[in-house]
Design a protein that fits this description.
alpha+beta, 2 domains, five-stranded antiparallel sheet, 7 helices, Minor capsid protein
Length: 240
Amino acid sequence: MVSIAVTAVNNTTLIDAQADNTLLGKTNSIIQRLSSFDIDSLAKQIASRMVTSINTQNRRVMADRFKAAYQIDISSLLGDQVVSSTLNKAIDYNVSLISSIKNDFISDIGKAIRDNYTDGMRSSELAKIIKERGKVSDSRAKMIARDQTAKINGTITRERNKSLGIEMYIWLGADDERERDSHRAMNNKLCRFDDATVYSDDGGKTWKKRTANMVKLHPCEDYQCRCDYQPYISWLNEPA
């Protein structure tokens, strides 16, 4: 989108002698070209590839994790039937998010030009503004991708575990300086997939309400959460 806008700024129109090549005319031309850009089909391709990649990695990681923790191979049990609805919803939702980047980019360009417009403003200055707004849009796109990757992965992990009859998990914190205190407080706590407000410190015999300094969500549900799960099977964790 940035290249479309910058090209419109730098190129004069040779075909239409009546074309408005003033700064205002170029600005209007940019908005029109961006508005006509069909992003929906591209967004569908991007979202589908992203969700498919997340799902493939999720199956592999879950199988590897079970094999390492319990010496059980569950790869044949990790089909897509139980998560197909979630995957389709994730694709649709991410198409809307990607499309919103285009709309926000158009809005940002218009606002930036209005805020910075001065008499005698050159096309090169307009192009610079567009490139700067493009960097903002690119940064937002990357942030959305990180956040959505974590959320989708977390959701299908829960669904796959529950389909296997696994009701509990151990919270695995990111364990670095960026980890939020409310997430660090949950590290290594035993939790339930069906209730994100409780935890256990006695192997699931009793459950306590999470305190005020504990996040009341599952791993990956909070904004840009990097925490993870370790599935917990009570009878396999009992001492021999």
